[in-house]
Amino acid sequence: MRPNAVSGLVRRHARWVVPVATPPIADGTVVTEGDRITWVGPRASAPAGGEDEELGDSILTPGLVNAHSHLDLTMMRGALEDLPFFDWVGTLVRAKREVLTGDDFRAAALLGVAEGLSRGITTFGDTADNDAAFDALLALGARGIAYREVFGPDPAQVSASIAGLTSAVAAMRLRETSLVRVGVSPHAPYSVSDALFAAVGAFAEREGLPLAVHVAESAAEDDLVIRAAGPFAQFLRGRGIVVERRAYGPIQLLDAAGLLRRSTLLIHCVRASASDVARMADTGCGIAHCPASNAKLGHGIAPLKEFLAAGARVGLGSDSMASNNTMDLLAEARLASLQQRALTKKPDALPARAAFRLATLGGAEALRLDDETGSLVPGMQADLVAFRMSDFGEPVADPLAALVFGAGQVVAHRVVVAGRERVRDGVVHGLAPAVRERVVDAAARLAQWRTARASG
Ligand SMILES: [Zn+2]
Predict the structure, then answer these.
(1) 0.70 cut: is pTM over it?
(2) Cβ atoms of 384 and 415 closer than 8 Å
(3) Beta-sheet pairing, 414-417 with 420-424
(4) Best exposed site among 64, 382, 395, 448 by fewest CB in 10 Å?
């Protein structure tokens, strides 16, 4: 099969097919025509005709869905280690302003999409305050929603913030495709005023845009929202912004601003209360659960079992390289399952099939893309990944257990998005070698800047 060409009828055969929506199939076949899946089942009963692709001892699954990333920050891998959250946010913001350039973000986003694709991620829910990730998704043929970030903790900034967002979104929407869509992201309660939340919510509703927001992530955020105290309150007061108690919790703050709705993705929700969880499920919000990022930054473990028990739409997110040094959804699924088992002391707290569902169909549901991707069902988009069984440690007795518990920087053998091959043997089609050099250079400048600040 020629890379980047939409194929006619293709029959892909693998030792295991994991459709997610239905149980695994031994010696299975997935038939696609153009950008669609037309048949899934045992090879012995597959319809005849078309081109055959033998994937051998592989596990063929739907493309993985990364419900939350910051692709333009790929150069920050390992750059902001071990900082308290307020300092971490502040250093990240200053680094973006003082060290990094538009070319850095563009290269980082390309490398980020390539890394994701090479690990089997075909769909990204990405947030950024530039269009680097949007361009990178388009350039490398991945699927996703590029949520354009907007900031403004001072209520006096609302109209300026909305004006900036409106023109940025309008420019991006001119280049929107069926694969890559545009959304908006009022960043977080510590960087967005209540008035701006409400204004962005109204804008998104008017424009029919999906919305994503970081929420209930840290103790410092709770301190600001609930008690008008802590480092964020002090920082905002230092900028002359009036800080008052805003709500009983960050999720209630979003509820009051009218943002809890079906097209909203809530990122993190580590500190969601029982009533928050019920409200999130009732309103149909999606949730991006980011277990590695939440653990690494010392925020804790989000109530995933409660999200699922309430019937919420939950997917997994890697978050940025600044808070999680890998983009590996299988590793996130593994961690999510291990955390729930450790917390509940129950070996069946999050079975492998449920954890792998989070990395695929759950993420598609959280992004409201589940009628297109996330499972291998006839009629769905041909987003497929083949993983080599030997990469999980053989023998593979249970393909779902291998995917979730054998994970460790596994590279995809084949990746197909909407019928077009994007990765072969771990190599991403269309990534220029100069991209990696640019990102390495940006990371070196970042490290130099950090050293100078530490000694100065
Ligand atoms: Zn994030």
Answers:
(1) yes
(2) yes
(3) antiparallel
(4) 395
Could you tell me the two tokens for 80?
Answer: 């902001």
Pairing state between β 313-316 and 286-289: parallel
Which uninterrupted H or E stretch holds 144?
Answer: strand 143-150
Distance between Cα 148 and ligand 1 center (Å): 12
In 3D, which of 133, 136, 115 has the Cα closest to residue 327? Answer: 115
Residue with tokens 């929107």: 176
Q: Which domains are assigned to the chain? A: 9-62+380-428 (2.30.40.10), 64-365 (3.20.20.140)
CB neighbours (10 Å) of residue 130?
A: 17
pLDDT digits (tens, 9 = 90+) for 80-136: 888 999 999 999 999 999 999 999 999 999 999 999 999 999 999 999 999 999 999
Our CA dihedral for 181, 187, 193, 196, rounded to 10 degrees, sits at: -10
CA 313 centroid distance within chain: 14
Residue type at position 19:
P
Distance 321 CA to ligand 1 centre (A): 10
How far is 312 from 284, CA to CA, in rounded Å? 7
- What is the whole-number distance in angstroms between the Cα of residue 129 and the centre of ligand 1? 12
